[in-house]
Backbone:
């Protein structure tokens, strides 16, 4: 039991690492990774929705009729997204403004619906939470990593939280602005995927 | 009138939904391997986006704002889009089977296409009037089709080249998309 639980948790961190291995939910990955802070904020919001919706879907899996299951999943997910929206407006308003419409758009993030359909609707609540947590943390780390690459090359800094520059290259650094613009997001993600493919899979 | 024209141009080229706003990336990478599927997807998106843009605008103004329940916007919009897609699918199957066969599997996929939901939310956030919302929805959809079909064309050619194994498929696709996005950046400052 404990072993399979650990397996469900860790698969999201490498073998099924969402944006790279599954190539799902790319919109927020490309759009909000201008800085580490935005990337991690988006990742945490998605993880919350993923864990909560996985839990609820898994608890209700025997009650939801198979024919209307997708619609039910979407309503469950939309409810949690609304909760996240309201929580962020109350406690993390600057971040909420930066992420903009990508917070309500977690509803249509394929990863969340994909986990409900592929995993939570077939497994028990504890396993589903482990799965959601694993995938969510993998997603957060990927967003943070891409955010770090883009922020470092494009701005010469690495910021973990508002107004707290953990690392800065100083004024002599010539920023590579391309990385902060739209094309930089595509090229950055493409090259990161390339580096991951270089590592042989078991 | 010229304002609407400027709005349309900026929605198609400058704020292109795929290459500048990053909405609808899943179909962008998923259906762009063949020209045929790219054209099918673009047509389905134009169709659904314009209709859902109109309906969500009406729902927002006459239902959510009127009843002061705007916090339900996310739930309401996704329900409208999901049921609209279902309805369109059933309608086309019965009355225009040729178009249904053409759009085929792309219709149900559109429910989770964030381009549709995204444009509906942008229309509300920008506080567009009804006419502006219609024009913007249509122009965004055209921009989606334009970028997707261009990208599919380039990708078909890239497939013929000898790409190193780790770079194949999605990886080279993303880099290609980056270069196309770079060309679209040159439209900035046009309006």
Residues:
């Amino acid at each position: 039991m404990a072993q399979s639980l650990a397996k469900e948790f860790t698969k999201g961190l490498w073998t099924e690492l969402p944006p790279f291995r599954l190539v799902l939910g790319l919109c927020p990955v490309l759009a909000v990774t201008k800085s580490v802070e935005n990337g991690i904020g988006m990742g945490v919001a998605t993880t919350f929705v993923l864990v909560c919706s996985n839990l609820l879907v898994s608890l209700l899996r025997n009650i939801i009729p198979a024919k209307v299951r997708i619609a039910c999943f979407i309503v469950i997910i939309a409810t949690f997204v609304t909760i996240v929206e309201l929580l962020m407006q109350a406690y993390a308003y600057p971040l909420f403004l930066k992420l903009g419409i990508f917070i309500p758009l977690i509803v249509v993030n394929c990863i969340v619906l994909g986990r409900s359909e592929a995993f939570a609707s077939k497994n028990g609540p504890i396993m589903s939470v482990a799965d959601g947590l694993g995938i969510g943390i993998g997603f957060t780390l990927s967003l943070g990593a891409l955010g770090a690459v883009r922020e470092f090359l494009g701005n010469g800094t690495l910021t973990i939280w508002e107004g707290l520059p953990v690392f800065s290259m100083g004024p002599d650094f010539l920023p590579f602005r391309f990385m902060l613009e739209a094309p930089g997001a595509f090229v950055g993600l493409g090259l990161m995927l390339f580096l991951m493919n270089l590592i042989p899979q078991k | 009138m010229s304002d609407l024209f400027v709005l349309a141009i900026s929605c198609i080229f400058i704020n292109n939904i795929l290459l500048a706003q990053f909405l609808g990336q899943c179909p962008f990478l998923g259906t762009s391997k063949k020209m045929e599927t790219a054209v099918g997807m673009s047509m389905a998106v134009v169709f659904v986006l314009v209709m859902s843009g109109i309906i969500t605008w009406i729902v927002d103004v006459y239902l959510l704002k009127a009843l002061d329940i705007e916090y339900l916007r996310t739930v309401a919009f996704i329900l409208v889009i999901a049921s609209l897609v279902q309805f369109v699918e059933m309608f086309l199957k019965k009355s225009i089977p040729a178009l249904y066969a053409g759009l085929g599997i792309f219709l149900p996929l559109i429910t989770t296409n964030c381009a549709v939901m995204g444009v509906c939310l942008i229309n509300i956030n920008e506080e567009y009037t009804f006419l502006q919302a219609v024009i913007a929805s249509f122009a965004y959809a055209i921009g989606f089709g334009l970028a997707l079909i261009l990208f599919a064309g380039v990708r078909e050619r890239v497939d013929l080249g000898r790409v190193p194994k780790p770079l194949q498929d999605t990886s080279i696709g993303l880099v290609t998309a980056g270069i196309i996005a770079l060309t679209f950046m040159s439209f900035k400052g046009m309006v």
Summary: The radius of gyration of chain B is 17 Å.
